[in-house]
């Protein structure tokens, strides 16, 4: 498909607002601080306001040119802080794209690069001696616009929720179990600051990613989800690459990791970061490996360090760095069922073995911190020894690395560098809590960011479900962000539909966790949808769901006629008899019968539950 | 599609054995006691033996004629007990099919009925004064062939599992958490007898369903799943109806409920029961309602009682009976978000309100027990007041009914009638444990049989996932059988693909629960698949999964060539670099390096975990 076609597809498929939805904003303390939400208009006149990750793409009024990138909303905030400087930046090298000059794509890519020249920005870095991390500001008591943005975003519009959460008895009965989290009734900017200051939350926001709409990852905030995307083997257009991002955030990805490998990864990353309203994460070792032709042994600290700076200048918001995979731990994997399954982890293991040396990520960790704090790149400390099967769950290799990640967290915090911790992987249900407990204990409540976990190993083709079970549970227990798994896990590369299936499964897991934790107001959407369901407002039921299109399509398969959208019955019981129709009669009966009923109860000893009477 | 086409489709689609699989049998203490298993041959010469619900349909050697039904394997066992008698049975009435004689289908159905005359059996019932329930035999110390069958089936072939579970350290680390269950290392026939005797397990096996392959539902046995099917509005053939059953058991349904309504339900039930190797459950009130033209108020005990006998004679193995929904509880639903959502429950609520009388199911409960024990039909005591939204979870209406079901369980057990208890529904994660606790406390460990529960309400189109999360958790906590939810839940009637999606999601939930509970040997399949995955035995990985077809198709989308089935790499990392290939190097390294490593550890103070060294 050529570029114009792709562009057309992008515009039609991923820019269309959700049904009955319009982009709205919560105004902050300053005119340039506006937090987007999605307002859904119901057929009964109500408006339900939802958390919105989709950025300007779902705003028909937004003029978007993927060759120019999104507006740099944060630039005024960065300028005001006056602690950064623009500079020429690292010199671009052919090697950055893993370029082989015989590459038959080289010319096309050069052309695309030229087309997208408008995406180039002059990089910023901290002025000499300055530390520009959100954690650094927080620890100095400063509430940044990013922190206020996060507070407003986490709260959302509370007004519409009130009537749904008004029943005191119900609220008492449904009160969440935060499992040790300390979630306030209202998130204030100061609360965000304090959580970031103590390292319990991060706001991934590289100073070179001014397009980002700030969000928080932390135990006391809403559980977030991450989606992974990768570049195409043969890139046909900028649109094709950007559209993967736009598609992922449309369905609710809070973060996106660019796991591109092979050709053109530097250029592809420019396209993605400049057009992304959500934080972008990467695994820099992947690009470093490309630079040494895929030979792990040939990796050097110099090449890796240069890659960190390259990506920090581009605006990557967090780096997965497997610095906890240490030489002495490698042999602990020798008797595993599935050895080392993390790609980054195995690259470093191979390097350590080849050189019989400690990992350069570990020995140079403080130098890495110096780079991170000059751009406010957050650590995502990688679990290179995560289990690749239930059989290897919670073993000494995994936990030895986790304890090391806890030590490294302390080092990162010494530099005020924001840090989260990556977790497994494959873990049976009964062993999930131990992962959370160990992480909290050794990593001092730094946000946990887990892949699944998959609760069983026998569901290839359905691992989004096998892992959504574990993800929902560990999210309830305190994990701050869930990395999605698609149906193609273990089998192949996810296509557009797989990405959507993985994201929806993880939105389910994250919402289930938020409801169980008792995040204020989070149940209101369930109540609104249930009310619509009960009142046969079909369209509202579809539009309040995670995927209105699919819900409507499924309904239409059985009852296609538009009139049935208002029908007071459904295909399950049909028009002749409907269980929900009974309830009005019940209500009349209750109203009328309450007095005699209560008399009856008193006669029966005032017990609501009346013991069975022996039958003659 | 006409009947021959359907028959062809049935034979090709649902009779084909699974890849590399063949039907095998575990021989019992007598020649007519043979428990089927599915033996999967791996490319490395191993054979993995799996629990098999698919019946003779996946045995190419079995001659199957859906117009004659399956072989009546249990007949010798029933005859030997000499406590039943054949009798003419209840006279067939036109009304049984809810027949309206102007019905334009009447003739076609009459013709199909004639075709299927071979399905008619002379019914059996207990001789006067006899009680023919498995519970009654168990309480008298008798081990029936059904009990031995269940024991062999639960254990499966243990030989092949040994090597996978040989690592003592791993077994210790992965030891399950039974959450109060008492699961023996090996299931003996006597254990089955004792569990049935105390009511902690049931073996649904109507004496008029001699075709059934016995299975157990109980907290100390493998978690089972149920799939619901319904008749077509316009039946075109016997094959069409039977194929829904065959399709469901192919993918692993342990039980099937026939929720048919409308026309021809008596005839359809004959077709299904006679061709079913798994227990069949029904909700008799549905048929009774058809007999009174869909007017709940017109229901009578006489019509309902006659329907119970009609279905007991046909061989239905368990009845959902909403006898716990009592008049005094109905008003408790008045202020619910979603009122009464159980169809059977709302029918009875409407009856109670209309007559201002206690439910006839409750007042006639002991008479119902008399019928159940004459045919060994098991109770599935229905939760007519289950919550239809998270907002209504665990409320007084739900729990008042649950306590009543506990009382009724005691009454049923007084008659030695096998009993299980139905549960919700919609329950947020943090409120699931309370459901299990209340059920165990008030229902005396009678098997719990839950629908989901759905952990959130905002996933229409994906409720198989929203509910698989709750199902896995409550299965771990002690629920014995999980009733599936399909993607069409709340939206429409599931088609063939929806049924498969629902079943696979629930096989995942049940297996995750069995692994967490620590059922002996249950993890072996995960270990075998993980080993195949690690050794790049792609075909074995597919064939050991829950859905080999889909796993293979997904792999082929990225790497179609057959050669890639033996390729020592996958599409995720490609041929150039593969994380799993590292492990052999790790093993060599570990073997060689172990001594020096251990020296290094001692030097470091003997700690496996080496504290970080400050970097200059």
From TrEMBL, chains A, B:
Residue numbers binding [4Fe-4S] cluster: 570, 573, 578
Binding annotation for Zn(2+): 426, 490
Chaperone recorded as keyword: no
Residue ranges of every copy of the ThiC-associated domain listed in the record: 17-85
Residue stretches spanning the membrane: none
Free-text cofactor note: Binds 1 [4Fe-4S] cluster per subunit. The cluster is coordinated with 3 cysteines and an exchangeable S-adenosyl-L-methionine.
GO MF annotations in UniProt: 4 iron, 4 sulfur cluster binding; phosphomethylpyrimidine synthase activity; zinc ion binding
Quaternary structure note: Homodimer.
NCBIfam families recorded: PRK09284.1, PRK13352.1, thiC
Functional summary from the UniProt entry: Catalyzes the synthesis of the hydroxymethylpyrimidine phosphate (HMP-P) moiety of thiamine from aminoimidazole ribotide (AIR) in a radical S-adenosyl-L-methionine (SAM)-dependent reaction.
Name of this chain's protein: Phosphomethylpyrimidine synthase
Species this chain originates from: Aquincola agrisoli
